[in-house]
Write a structure and sequence with these properties.
Blueprint: H1 40-46, E1 55-57, E2 76-80, E3 88-92, E4 101-103, H2 127-132, E5 134-142, H3 143-149, E6 161-162, H4 164-174, E7 183-187, H5 190-195, H6 199-204, E8 215-216, H7 219-228, E9 232-235, H8 252-258, E10 263-265, H9 270-279, E11 283-288, E12 298-299, E13 303-306
């Protein structure tokens, strides 16, 4: 662990590394990126966020959204065996990114520079994250509630941008301080909105790849999250960032291959947000157990928040 983490404007720290990248901050051949910030000391400190013992699963059903977004495969669940003789599950045609997910570093590469840290594609894998687990302090930015209270509710069926200044104002008005190594959860309300759609409305969401949805927007949001030194960012929307991205400039390319900030998408944050709002506190002890699939691209988060 470096003695001091560089600011975004001080990147890169390694000679020859790409502009705006964290390559070399944690040495060569790094598979963890900002997950390196989840030190034993920070995990232990995160336990102070447990006040009531209430547990919140952040995982929606594996069958939602349905149809899956971005033309991904629809899982088919088969129960094998006979009554009284024992059953097994078989998941057919299952894409690990058709529901709630972690985007691993194999998911998204820079077109010219490749994957995070310059590590070859086939040498990355979600199994590295699974072997150590993802445990720490989560903080919630309930942007959906904040915008609604401000009289500007998020437009869930549109590409409604959430710039850095709005994210910062939401955290400030909640009284929430983001600490180094926190997992930042951003609630847009999109998944709750989606659950309220009928079959026709859900089908409309997948007519085109350019599914309009709210999310983080602008390079200042990237700069802000790096300068906060979060361990990861997860949201309840399809891509964390606004979609489609303005000018076709994806923030994924900054978060994943350049900065090594894991992204979680389509997480279920509504019940957690209700509890946070009622208590006036927005942090929780957090655990996530990705699938231990060697060379895996992505994984359901299997994420739990304990308040």
């Amino acid at each position: 662990m470096p003695d001091r983490l560089p600011s975004y404007d001080e990147l890169p720290v390694q000679e020859g590394a790409p502009a705006g990248s964290s390559w070399g901050v944690w040495g060569d051949r790094d598979f963890f990126g900002t997950l390196n910030l989840l030190t034993p000391e920070r995990v232990l400190a995160a336990a102070r966020s447990i006040r009531t013992g209430r547990v919140f699963s952040l995982n929606p059903e594996l069958t939602i959204p349905d149809p899956p977004l971005f033309w991904r495969a629809r899982v088919r669940h088969e129960v094998t065996g006979e009554l009284g003789g024992g059953h097994d599950d078989l998941y057919h045609n299952w894409n690990t990114q058709s529901s709630a997910q972690w985007d691993g570093f194999r998911h998204y590469a820079h077109r010219e520079l490749g994957h995070y840290g310059g590590v070859p594609d086939e040498e990355h894998g979600i199994h590295y994250w699974a072997e150590r687990g993802i445990v720490g302090r989560a903080v919630l930015a309930d942007v959906a509630r904040w915008r609604e209270q401000a009289g500007r509710p998020i437009r869930h069926g549109e590409g409604d941008p959430i710039p850095a200044d709005e994210l910062a104002a939401c955290l400030r008005d909640q009284g929430t301080t983001v600490e180094t190594g926190d997992i930042l959860l951003v609630r847009t309300g999109w998944l709750g909105w989606y659950r309220g759609l009928d079959a026709e409305g859900r089908a409309e969401c997948v007519k085109e790849r350019t599914l309009p949805a709210p999310g983080l927007s602008g390079i200042d949001a990237v700069r802000m999250l790096w300068d906060l030194h979060v361990a990861a960012v997860a949201a309840d929307n399809p891509a964390v960032e606004v979609f489609p991205p303005p000018g076709g400039k994806y923030l994924h390319v900054h978060f994943l291959p350049l900065l090594g900030i894991p992204l979680g998408e389509l997480w279920d944050l509504d019940d957690l947000a209700d509890d946070c709002s009622a208590a006036g506190t927005y942090d929780a002890f957090f655990t996530s157990a990705p699938l231990n699939m060697p060379q895996g691209v992505a994984s359901p988060p299997n994420a739990i928040a304990v308040r």
